[in-house]
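Support reply, case 0932

Customer input (verbatim):
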Amino acid sequence: MEYKNENRQCQNCKKDFMIESEDFNFYEKIKVPPPTFCPLCRAQRRFVFRNERKFFRVKDAFTGKDIFSLWPQESDRKIITEEEWSGDSWNAMDYGVDYDFSRNFFEQIFELYKQIPIFNLNVQFMVNSPYSANATSLKNCYLCFNLAMLRTVCMAML
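Our regenerated output:
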């Protein structure tokens, strides 16, 4: 079937957007309906799960202590510190479940997603860098987000 370019109005923001004929062919190929949201609104929906800079005070799922987290308490996640997550105080194999072929896969993965602990700030290899998140290998940083300092680069610079 041959399609033509089509203008549509976004169901969310009410702005006009165009769906090109090649796009219709692709949607037909993967058996999904054409979008009702514009590209920007679709991107916002895809990225809504990722928190970039907002901290929440939550209770550590293992110790009950107050910690800062990128996930709010209402997320129903088991939130723990990075040290606990990478430590030996829990065994990830305890969270293994059998797949039930009679149930929807996505429902089962969502249930598993809520049971497995997640670490609070998404950080690794931090040195004296409190209140930083979504970061790796920072040293002496404060309130830094979405950064990664490669150790090999740092060592080469010395």
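We compared this against your earlier run and they match. Two observations from our side: The chain has two domains: 6-47, 56-153. The helical segments are 21-29, 39-47, 82-85, 105-115, 151-157. Please reopen the case if you see a mismatch on your end.
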